[in-house]
Write a structure and sequence with these properties.
It comes from Marinobacter nauticus (Marinobacter hydrocarbonoclasticus). The protein is an all-alpha fold. It has 2 helices and no strands. The chain has one domain.
Length: about 25
């Protein structure tokens, strides 16, 4: 699900979302 969210919100802040997803995992 994290990957989908990251791909669904790339312009909002890919780097930020990526870090959040990685931390969440």
């Amino acid at each position: 699900m994290a990957t989908t969210h990251n791909l669904g919100f790339p312009r909002i802040g890919g780097q930020r979302e990526l870090k959040f997803a990685l931390e969440d995992y």
